[in-house]
Amino acid sequence: MDDLRRNDQLDEWDRGSFFHPSTHLAQHARGESPTRIVKTASGVHIEDRDGQRWLDGFAGLYCVNVGYGRTEIADAIAAQAKELAYYHAYVGHGTEAAITLAQMVMDRAPAHMSKVYFGLSGSDANETNLKLVWYYNNILGRPEKKKIISRWRGYHGSGLMTGSLTGLEMFHKKFDLPMTPVLHTTAPYYYRRENDAQTEEQFSAQCAADLEDLIAREGADTIAAFWAEPMLGTGGIVPPPKGYWEAIKPILERHEILLVADEVVTGFGRLGTMFGSEHYGLEPDFITIAKGLTSAYAPLSGSIVSKKVWEVLEKGTDENGPIGHGWTYSAHPIGAAAGVANLKLLDELGLIANAAEIGAYLNAEMARALADHPHVGEVRGEGMLCALEFVEDKDRRRFFDPARKIGPKVAGELANLHVIGRAMPGGDILGFAPPFSLGREHVDEIVGSTVKAVRAAGL
Ligand code: PLP
After folding, report:
1. Which of 169, 336, 449, 459 is deepest in the core (most CB within 10 A)?
2. Considering the entire predicted model, what is its pTM?
3. CATH, domain range 36-69+351-457
4. CA–CA separation, 312 vs 120, rounded Å?
5. CB under 8 Å to 216, separation ≥6 — which residues?
6. pLDDT, tens digit only, all 459 positions of the chain
7. How far is the CA of 41 from the centre of ligand 1 (A)?
8. Which CATH class for the 72-348 domain?
9. Record keywords: Transferase included (predicted)?
10. CA 211/CA 189 separation, integer angstroms
């Protein structure tokens, strides 16, 4: 590591050799865009190679939920690597860490869930759930029931099928996505409703009617599953409008459409409850987990299946032999050891209760400081998630020309003040998803700096 720290060629190597995800490749290679080479981190702060520090208001990519520098997790990873760095989980094999974590996940999952399959990323966990949805309907003798409905503005990953489930244009454009059989329905995004006169409840009823229409057009016996984050994340940090889930759930039940709750962001406490499904009263057939499972100390994800689904999967293997699905790194013991230590820390430090309390303070303070600003259309959030949406004309809900890049500009000014917020895709939206260990003094800094950044961006 010391060699790397002294290395003054890293900038050059970064531009010359490193293919970054979700990056303007040409600008980066030409050296036109800023880089940040992060060296270390502690608590809610990250630090670069020059010793500059930022308050990380987005917990990496809303994943470092317990905060940075937790030696309990680092020690658990080191101990596992020394004792057993790897063994696979195929054909009934396991490791102490993976089995223990499975039990801890199921102890925390809603009571009607049965088992957890471990992968590496949110994308691959959604891919696993997708395969299992198809397998389920094949075992039940419903080979036509295969289409999947997700929502515009949903984010479910960036693989071929998971990128198709994602309802954001930048993840489709020039990649020939979405692939069939994925269909998208109305985003539960009240602020961007077309009809000004609608109440939240009326808008929710319209979302439900749009879903009913889509199902009727396609034929209910061709629709396998509805894929949704309990609350929209990357699509804008948007809590569901009043009455939304109450209107959607009966439609899915009536047409025997499985519900897959993508809890990659909301799982393990981000809404101030263990799962977003509990938060909104959902009883999903599948739950996708990742980020908060290990607080990103090691890559690990999970696909949790319900008892109803599990019974059919067992029947499937009785009829067809072992399930043909697995990766070399499924249930990797180092990730599992990180998960065990992470879930213990969440409990011991009461971090989910802190996320609820401090998240409420963050949302209230942000609203107090900026809700009346003429270019802030909405301040919204839930738990430890908060967003501001910038608009050109507040009264008419007219948005800025995307070419002006107002959201990224505010995020840039905020970074100049040493606070990180995220310019979300699909609008001028500044998002916050801090670690759960955030304190009131950090909230005051985030809000104070955001006010200054909005001003510095010329709004
Ligand atoms: N699902 C949701 C709700 C997400 O927010 C993300 C990532 O942000 C994913 C899935 C994909 O997870 P990963 O980036 O680990 O593949």
Report:
1. 336
2. 0.97
3. 3.90.1150.10
4. 25
5. none
6. 555 555 678 989 999 999 999 999 999 999 998 889 999 999 999 999 999 999 999 999 999 999 999 999 999 999 999 999 999 999 999 999 999 999 999 999 999 999 999 999 999 999 999 999 999 999 999 999 999 999 999 999 999 999 999 999 999 999 999 998 999 999 999 999 999 999 999 999 999 999 999 999 999 999 999 999 999 999 999 999 999 999 999 999 999 999 999 999 999 999 999 999 999 999 999 999 999 999 999 999 999 999 999 999 999 999 999 999 999 999 999 999 999 999 999 999 999 999 999 999 999 999 999 999 999 999 999 999 999 999 999 999 999 999 999 999 999 999 999 999 999 999 999 999 999 999 999 999 999 999 999 999 999
7. 22
8. alpha beta
9. yes
10. 14
Q: Which residues line ligand 1 (CB under 6 A)?
A: 61, 121-123, 126, 155-157, 229, 233-234, 262, 264-265, 290
Please tell me what DSSP assigns to residue 399. P
| Tokens found for residue 257 | 């459409």
Q: Could you tell me the distance, in angstroms and rounded to a whole number, from the CA of residue 125 to the centre of ligand 1?
A: 9
Q: What is the DSSP string of 212-279?
A: HHHHHHH-GGGEEEEEE-SSB-TTT-BPPPTTHHHHHHHHHHHTT-EEEEE-TTTTTTTTSSS-HHHH
The atom number, within ligand 1, closest to the CA of 61 reads: 8
| Domain residue ranges in the chain | 36-69+351-457, 72-348
